[in-house]
Specification:
This protein is mainly β. It contains one helix and 16 strands. Helices cover 13% and strands 44% of the residues.
Length: 180
């Protein structure tokens, strides 16, 4: 009977550990839009390949309507990532503009349609619609699994990054290169 009791305790302990691990594993990358136009989001992050090497994968586009939030990929677990937000062209007094949140220090491959590029930090490929463009770096999780919310602010200039790591919150504010 003692062995059975130990087994029950062990099984209960294992269940608690599994629930705790699952709760910690829910590291979401979420984008919120306070801007007046829909924002289209692309991300890039480092991936390890089966041969032991690594490179960057870029993916896009997630549409985030004005006043809403969207998770990019609930199965993605990375310590940090890069992101780019942009709008379609829209009418303004005197013409048209497009708003872009970017940083030219970090360039990854994108295109106008939905995409998924391996080695996205490398030279552009022969398709003329593909281009290396600027991305903003996220905050970084020391535990290797970031949970971050990026908010594109109403002013069309700033973005806010809020990250929750091991139960603590941190935030930073960034900007972009401006409207086009």
């Amino acid at each position: 009977m003692t062995n059975l009791r130990n087994f029950r305790i062990s099984a209960a302990a294992a269940s608690v550990l599994m629930v705790a691990a699952t709760a910690n594993a829910h590291a979401t990358i979420k984008f919120c839009n306070k801007y007046r136009e829909p924002v289209y989001v692309a991300i890039a992050y480092q991936q390890s390949y089966s041969d032991g090497s690594s490179g960057y994968l870029s993916r896009g586009w997630l549409q985030v309507a004005s006043g809403s939030c969207q998770e990019f990929d609930t199965s993605l677990h990375v310590p940090s990532f890069f992101y780019r937000g942009e709008t379609n062209w829209f009418k303004v007094k005197g013409g048209q503009q497009r708003t872009v949140w970017e940083n030219d220090d970090n360039k990854f491959l994108t295109t106008v349609a939905a995409f998924n590029y391996w080695d996205a930090d490398k030279k552009e490929n022969s398709n003329s619609s593909n281009q290396l463009v600027g991305f903003i770096k996220s905050l970084e999780a020391s535990n290797g699994d970031i949970a971050e919310t990026v908010t594109f602010e109403a002013d069309g200039i700033h973005d806010t990054q809020d990250v929750s790591v091991n139960g603590s919150d941190d935030s930073a504010t960034g900007g972009h290169s401006g409207s086009q």
